[in-house]
Design goal:
Blueprint: H1 4-10, E1 13-16, H2 25-35, E2 39-43, H3 49-56, E3 64-68, H4 73-81, E4 86-88, H5 94-102, E5 106-108, E6 110-111, H6 114-123, E7 127-130, H7 133-136, H8 138-145, E8 153-156, H9 165-171, E9 176-178, H10 189-206
Parallel strand pairs: 1-2, 1-9, 2-3, 3-4, 4-5, 6-7, 7-8
Helix pairs in contact: 2-10, 4-5, 5-6, 8-9
Amino acid sequence: MLRFAQAFAEMPLVAILRGVRPGEVIAIAEALHAAGIRIVEVPLNSPQPLDSIQNLQAMADIMVSGAGTVLSVADVDDVIAAGGQIIVSPNMDAAVIRLALAKGSVPLPGVATATEAFAAIAAGADILKLFPAATYGPGHVQALRAVLPSAATIVPVGGVGPAQMAEWWAAGARGFGLGSDLYKPGMTPAEVRARANAAVAAVRALR
């Protein structure tokens, strides 16, 4: 099974497949993988999200998958039962973080302020999802980086696409979550592959 740390080191992008359906998720994930992306998130407000996460376990050797919009400890239990390895939230909930870690998965809590970031770190998280990133801007990352532990990784999500990555990277971001820049319901795998190619090329240019 591919582990999160290895996948993130290879390509620090999380593909957010909001609205994906169980019957298409494998084809979409295969297109993402072909472009170089190794991490997929299925938000829980998608159609039958747990079925999609379960289907993705067929790719567990080459792709890390899990859920987004995880809001409760009950959600964590459901995602883990479906095989999910990552627990992504729009908010900072210490109980969600602690349970995710206890179950052997990787939490990516949503934070905005320094207070939320330090609370997430205290609960055990070391990858922090800055959300919604566009509301705050790259300068916010730079300010947070000045006070956060060096081991904490900031991943902007929300309004950050390939065209904006360079300024965020320069400010201290070290990964990105991409939603509509990669996938919208109704897109074909070929369309997703083309968008993923552009995103992966943008990240490789930064490294």
